[in-house]
Each structure stands twice: as structure tokens, then as C-alpha cells.
Amino acid sequence: MHPLLDIQNLKTHFFTTYGAIRAVDGVSLKIYENDAVGLVGESGSGKTVTSLSVMRLVPEPGRIIQGKILFRDQNLLELSEREMRKIRGKKIAMSFQDPMTYLNPVMRVGSQIAESIALHQDLDKSDALEKAIEIMELMRISSPREVAMSYPHQLSGGMRQRALLAMAISCNPDLLIVDEPTTALDIIVGVQIIELLTELRTKLNTSLLLITHDLRVVKQLCENMAVMYLGNIVEYCNIQRIFVNPLHPYTEALLRSFIRIDERKDKPLKTIKGWIFDPLNPPTGCKFHPRCQYAKEICKRQLPELLEVDPGHFSACIRVEEIREIME
């Protein structure tokens, strides 16, 4: 099967007065038609920068310095900004983490959604606004005409998130990238957003790249999961297998720290020891070795490759076979 999106050895660095921050440092990832991939990891692992690289929206002083981003076999990194604008929003769309940052505070919500529709579907303002209201109804927004006439600050956090999603799906993209859709929302609204995304995938027949640190959201929305740590993907597999049989120590540690609703309330929370290193000065060898309970001397010297250790199951760990036996 041919991938819809094929990221190959992507490197996106931020060049500061203190040195280069290797936010994305050799990421390869494939997403297929009607696929849903969750990209997970702690804050600072490079998830959002990966998605911004796909959209060609990396802010200064960031720069994509290496790799390919193939969308339907077309390398997005070779396109002009004018050519990219024809794809961005129409073929690939992104719903960002903080709606108040990406919604124009002095422009009515309906007009913002309609603007994207008018740009890509060659409609006048009136028809584009009617189309925007139809999409807001699809997003289960009650009183969509009233909401369309509102400004972002007049809406709740959950409603702003729906508005941002409405903007992203307004042109029925082939690939929808959603960054932390439930962050800063209460549990009930978060569940509603998850249900909505599930429904949208079915109705729109779109592929999904979900950026999150919440494993519960990934388990509910995605078929496959890529685990990212300090600029690299360290494990990739389907959801069912990776939750039961993780083959990288970082994934195992993430799953241990995952709070399950059916567990005893007095059960102590298992955290990952230490913290993500300064990306200006990452550790040598395996970047996770200072926090890894299985690390040996070789892990400090040798940088592991992401290799297929089982059919469809990839891991970037030098000692994966030894650790497999320990984990089992």
C-alpha cells in the first residue's frame, strides 16, 4: 500500500545565539489512506514541530535542514510558498493546540471559517458563510448562526476548539492534523471532542495525525501509535500491540505512568525518573539512556536506529531483544 504522507529523515532545527536546538532530528513516519496515527511523547519531544514542518509553518528561528515530506509522492519541501498555500488548508489541514492563539480576536468566527472556504472553493463571501454555518452544524455547534457572528473571546474553550476544527475540515482535507485537542478542556468537553473527531473521520473519510501526550485519547482515536523522544521516533506499532507489548523502555515507562480509571485510587503513581535533557546539549548515544532502567555502557555510545523488530513493530533500542525477555 502506498502512503498518503511519507516523512523521510526529517530534521528541523532552531538556530539560536546559544546554538542549534535539534527539535526534530531524523524523523521518519508514514501515514496511509484512512489511517489514524497518534504521535505521543512528553512536552519538548518534538511532536508539534514535526506537524508544523509538514505544514511548512515552522516559526523563526526554526528551519527544515534535511529530509523529505512526500504527500501523494510530491515533496512538499520543494514547493514554492504559493504552491504550498494550495495544499495547506485544502489537502492538509491542521487544528492547533491553543485556539485563542490561532483565531483572529477581532474577526467573527464565521468569517474566519468562511475565509478558508472562499480561498479554496472559489465561492463568494455570502455562499462561503453559508457553507461555514453548515460545517458548524456538522461540528454539533448549537445555534451556529449566532456563534458565527461571535468573536473568539465570547466563546467557551470547548466551543473555540470546535470552531478551529470546523476551520480545519472546511475543505474536506485528505489529512487532518490535530494538536492536543483536549488540552485545557474539562473531562466532559474533552470526551465530546473525541467523539466528534471519531464521527468526523467516518463522515469525511480523512486520515488523521493526532499530536498528544494523553494516551487515553490516542487509544480511543487511533489505529497506530508513534512514540517520540527528544526529536526522534523511538517506537511505532499498532495500538493493540504497543499497549500490551511495548518494545522500547521509554514507551514502557509512559504506559506505566498512564492512570487507568479501573485502578485503585490509593495506588501510587509511577513516574519516569529524571527529565528530558536540554536539546542544546542532548546526551550521546541513545538519548533516553540517562533515564532508562535497562541502560548499559553501550547505550551511552551507540545511537540506535528505528528498526522493524516484529512485523509492523519498530523500535529504536540496541538491547531490544534482551529487554523483550525482561519485559515478558
Domain module tally: 1
Helix- and strand-based class?
Answer: alpha/beta
**How much is the radius of gyration in Å?**
21 Å
Strand composition percent? 15-25%
Largest sheet: 8 strands, mixed
First-last Cα distance: 32 Å
Rounded mean pLDDT score:
88
The tally of beta strands, per DSSP, is: 12
Oligomer: single chain
CATH level-4 homologous superfamily: P-loop containing nucleotide triphosphate hydrolases
- Give the overall shape, derived from the CA principal axes: globular
Question: Under the CATH scheme, which class?
Answer: Alpha Beta
**Lateral arrangement of strands in the main beta sheet:** 6-7-8-3-9-10-12-11
The CATH architecture name reads 3-Layer(aba) Sandwich
Q: List SSEs in N-to-C order.
A: EEEHEEHEHHHHHEHEHEEHHHEEH
CATH topology: Rossmann fold
Report the total helices: 13
Percent of residues in helices? 25-40%
Indicate the low-confidence ranges by residue numbers.
Answer: none
Structure in words:
Strand 11 (307-310) and strand 12 form a beta hairpin. The chain has helices at 47-54, 81-87, 99-102, 109-121, 125-138, 144-148, 157-169, 187-204, 215-221, 239-244, 249-256, 297-301, 320-327; strands spanning 5-16, 19-31, 36-40, 62-71, 74-75, 92-95, 175-179, 207-212, 224-229, 232-238, 307-310, 313-315. The mean pLDDT is 88. The chain has one domain: 3-Layer(aba) Sandwich (Rossmann fold). The longest helix is centred in the middle third of the chain and has 18 residues, at 187-204. Helix 4 packs parallel to helix 7. It has 328 residues and is of the alpha/beta class. It starts with a strand and ends with a helix. The chain has 13 helices and twelve strands.
